[in-house]
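BUG: 3D viewer hangs when loading the predicted structure for this chain

Environment: internal workstation, default settings.
Expected: structure renders.
Actual: progress bar stalls at 90%.

Input used:
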Amino acid sequence: MKEILKLENVGYRYSDADANDFVLKNINFDFESGKVYAIKGKSGSGKTTLLSLISGLERCSEGKILFKEEDLGNIDLDYYRSNHIGIVFQSYNLLPHLTASENIILSMDISKVEVDDKRAKAIKLMESVGLPASYADKRILRLSGGEQQRVAIARSLSYNPHIIIADEPTGNLDKETENEIFDILKNLAEKENKCIIIVTHSDNLAKRSDIVYELKNKSKKKKDD
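Structure tokens produced before the viewer hung:
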């Protein structure tokens, strides 16, 4: 299967850093649709920087990132971020003064999603991640952490992106809820052919992922290694 995302000799250093002081160096990772990837590494290994590069928030200092064989350096990154990449955060990043459905609808508005009934679509997305329609009008702060993360996943799906990046998506959740959230992400890969990229410290999530990338030694480990 052809990669949807490919990192070729990617390096990154801060603009004020020394010439040889790289946060990331010689990163060569491939990502395919229909699979779940875990990215692991100790604090300071460059995980957050890597996500910023993949999501188009930062540009490579060396090498290149290809999305469907096209260099990110040559495409409209605003369009790329609002149409092809969905992001799920550890802290959910939902607007607390809005309801669950309103958070999802706002994402649709930002991405200029054209649909006759955005509320109906928001509810359908919520149901797809295990939240009943009755939660549509609940304020975010009235939801549990696991429920908020489900809303965040539904929001990331609102414009049907090819890739979903989850940054420590279960860091604030208990083990049972962690498995439930992973099951949702795994289902998106297997049944909707999404490419799921999870940055995590959880050994449990790494073991359940299809492929694990270690930033520490910049090597790829298969699930059964």
